[in-house]
Design brief:
mainly alpha; two-stranded antiparallel ribbon; 8 helices
Length: 251
Amino acid sequence: MKSPASSIPPLPLRQSSTAALLAWTVAALACVLAWDMSGQDMPFARWFGNSQGFALQNDWFLVNIAHEGARKIAWIVAMGLSLMIWWPRGWMRKLPYARRIQLVVGALLSLVVMAVMKRISATSCPWDIADFGGVGHYVSHWAWGITDGGSGHCFPAGHASAGFAFLSGYFALRHNQPRVARLWLAAALVAGFALGLAQQMRGAHFMSHTLWTAWLCWTVSGLCDLFTTRSLAQQAPADAALPPDDLLAPD
């Protein structure tokens, strides 16, 4: 006969784990800032473009598969995960209801944040810069309010967020499925950087755009995780008979 304790899902990770995540977040921020200060955006862009433009800007694979195709796949995945909030399948069955919501909301919120930032950004894409056949001139994305003469609305990297937005899955899964969480983390990072590199090869973004997108999506997902965990803890019964992750599960 199964003991009552065996049916209780693992408790959320301890504060030491949260502190470690915070340390990684700060370390990643330091790396992104270091790249910004290094001034390597333009030299890296010159790997793929010159004064005549970017040879791969209209490449069939990069446009139709790595851009349009990947974007459609990302939305299909997002829709599938949304449906599995109520009708979970596979490993999602082991994920508590509140964490399933967290996974989807974290991903969608990341996409919204990226879209809003792009909307108000004055930073132009590499292919709009005179060094690569455009009409604008390079201006750091930190120079807020200063236009570069291009079309703007290119920071951060919206397409890379189609991969990085799913970093939310790592935070949702890490509480009771750490192995799956690590695999999910690796997949989201690979997808995000692959999509970011594809756009850089076309001249659509600088490397800093991709790096900031990764960090911002990670941070948004981390904040969603913190909010969910605290909300669950506050709703815990006085006798603490059940772990927080069970409290928002449907009957």
